[in-house]
Write a structure and sequence with these properties.
The protein has 183 residues and is α/β, with parallel strands linked by helices. It has helices at residues 17-34, 50-59, 110-120, 179-182, and strands at 10-15, 40-46, 65-74, 83-88, 98-106, 126-134, 147-151, 157-158, 174-177. It has one domain: 3-Layer(aba) Sandwich (Rossmann fold), CATH 3.40.50.2020. Strands 4-3-2-5-6-7 form a 6-stranded mixed β-sheet, with helices on both faces. The two termini are 23 Å apart. α3 (110-120) links the parallel β5 (98-106) and β6 (126-134). The chain binds inosinic acid (IMP) and magnesium ion. Magnesium ion is lined by residues 45, 48-49, 103-104.
Length: 183
């Protein structure tokens, strides 16, 4: 679906499908260069990173293995607590492998801080993070992110994998959700 299909649910479109694809191609070129000659495993964080994984992976010009994790943050309502439970673990053994975690957004940073240290404890050759979006003002944990698509204001955004109550994930663009939708 396009933003035209969601009526006035968006205050504004932050990034169009084309702008997202352009930025992902730049990020992929950097990843190709940084991991040249290395065997890379990219790990998508379900469900939000599905679109980013699909498009970022296809923009790479090198072979890459893809795996998935699903985690849930314990917390009240929309507040992440940093206590994370694994719902689906990796299929792959990552010891001695180069791992790149791919996520769609870093908000407080609590989830990725936990995930990075969890994967780091499995003796990989390296663990890095790529995220399409980051909200610097919301960050509560300093996360060392190697690849960032866009830094955005501290507002709730949907589309391109990002949901509000499981909706809008299939929106092509990324937009700021209008308050009348969540209040
Ligand atoms: P954290 O606060 O960095 O741990 O973010 C955890 C998760 O919250 C992200 O991976 C998203 O799934 C979700 N999230 C954070 N901000 C937004 C947003 O603006 N829209 C939709 N989901 C979000
Ligand atoms: Mg996520």
């Amino acid at each position: 679906m396009d933003s035209a299909h969601v009526g006035d649910d968006l205050v504004k479109v932050l990034y169009t499908e084309d702008q997202i694809q352009d930025r992902l191609r730049e990020m992929a070129a950097q990843i190709d260069a940084d991991y040249a000659g290395k065997d890379l495993l990219i790990v998508g964080v379900l469900k939000g990173a599905v679109m980013v994984m699909a498009d970022l992976a296809r923009s790479l010009t090198s072979h890459v293995e893809m795996d998935w994790m699903a985690v849930s943050s314990y917390g009240s309502g929309t507040q992440s607590s940093g206590v994370v439970r694994i719902l689906k673990d990796l299929d792959a053994d990552i010891s001695d492998r180069h791992v790149l975690i791919v996520d769609e957004i870093i908000d407080t940073g609590l989830t990725l801080t936990w995930l990075t240290s969890n994967l780091a404890s499995r003796n990989p050759a390296s663990v890095e993070i790529a995220t399409l979006l980051r909200k610097p003002e919301a960050q509560r944990m300093p996360v060392d992110v190697k690849y960032v698509g866009f830094d955005i204001p501290n507002e709730f955004v949907v589309g391109y994998g990002l949901d509000f109550k499981e909706r809008y994930r299939n929106l092509r663009d990324i937009g700021t959700l209008a308050p009348h939708v969540y209040s």
